[in-house]
Amino acid sequence: MRTPALGAARLLSGAGLAAALMLPTAVPAQAAPPSRAPAADGKKGQELPGMPSALDPEAAEVICTPASREKAKKQDWSRQRLDLDRLHRHSTGEGVTVALIGTGVDPDAAGLGGRVTAPGTAGDDCVGHGTFLAGLIAGTGGNSPRLAGVAPAARILALRGTDRRGQADTALVVNALREATEAQAEVIAVAVALPRKDPALSGAVAEARRAGAVVVAAAAPDPPSRGGTDEVPSRTYWPAGEPGVLSVADMLPGGARPDGSLPTDGIDLAAPGAGVVSGGPRGDGHYLGGGVPVATAYAAGAAAAVRAAHPDDSPDDVVRRLTTTAYPADIPQLDAYAAVTTVLGDPAAAGGPERAAEPVTVRDTSAAERATGRATLFVLLGSAGVLAVLWAGFALSRARARGWRPAGTAGTANQ
């Protein structure tokens, strides 16, 4: 009489194991976040060399970043997220000069030729990072037009804010800000973040804003390559912390900041900052890069596109346009297309901005999360149903074995 019970027990065990194996399929795998200078992009992999933001400061010899021999095969996620193909039908940043303060820019780099002014040593971009950022701001993409920057008709004024290895220097940043102001640059992008407030720096930023420039700055430096950031306290970096400066941080495709980001406060805007494709100062190949400076370059390009499309807007109006049209999140996410095409009302009006026709659709993960929840629920309910059917079969077989008598009476009847 134990054989039916044993068989049913085995069926129940098998059903439980099947349910346990099925449950993980309803929960999507969490991929590790891309590194800040990744070597591959996407599931299939876009194998490209990483673009560093600085060279090893302890190396005995300065070895410049070599030319890339690889070409990107597709448009990266960041350009799709910013809807650049549609944006360029409304503004390309023509007539706007963006001063880029970083490692310098090669005036002859692919996609930038004829639109870069690089005084002094700013034309010697040994690191390559400044040229990479310039491509995101104003590059045409060369033979790959879908890899164009946000404002591909804008001009670049390259100014050095670092030494040749890419290490930020306060005095250089101050001088660069003053040069940008004298050159009447409409947008100033500061791709470096300094750890200490400096009176000369504050004065240079204030002077630039009075002259009519939109100042965009990295909210924090890239994290150190050695050691973790778990014990690094939150702090303000400069000039991002100065009044009126648009402070920009990087984000992953899902909208979150990368793991290990240096903590800071006062961030105004987040922009793509991982797995981003651009060119370099040597050759016509492509690199992948990321980090806060990349996000800053995208925001500066968007500011240039706005200034070209709305030449009567004040610098404060441009910043308001970039922030109020951003996709709502814990840190508002840059929406370059909406920033150019949205019709803004009176800032004191309660109704807020009115979107233009064909608003950009930003990828929303809530539907995927709801679908995941439903899939998990269906698996659980399905597994419970299977167990219920098997338990009913087991109970019926036991009842038949007892001659349909209540449990506990079969033994008495046989005595």
From TrEMBL:
The chain crosses the membrane at residues 375-396. Residues 93-332 form the Peptidase S8/S53 domain. Residues 30-40 have a biased composition (Low complexity). Residues 1-31 form the signal peptide. Coiled coil: none annotated. Residues 30-54 are annotated as: Disordered. This is S8 family serine peptidase. The lineage of its organism: Bacteria, Bacillati, Actinomycetota, Actinomycetes, Kitasatosporales.
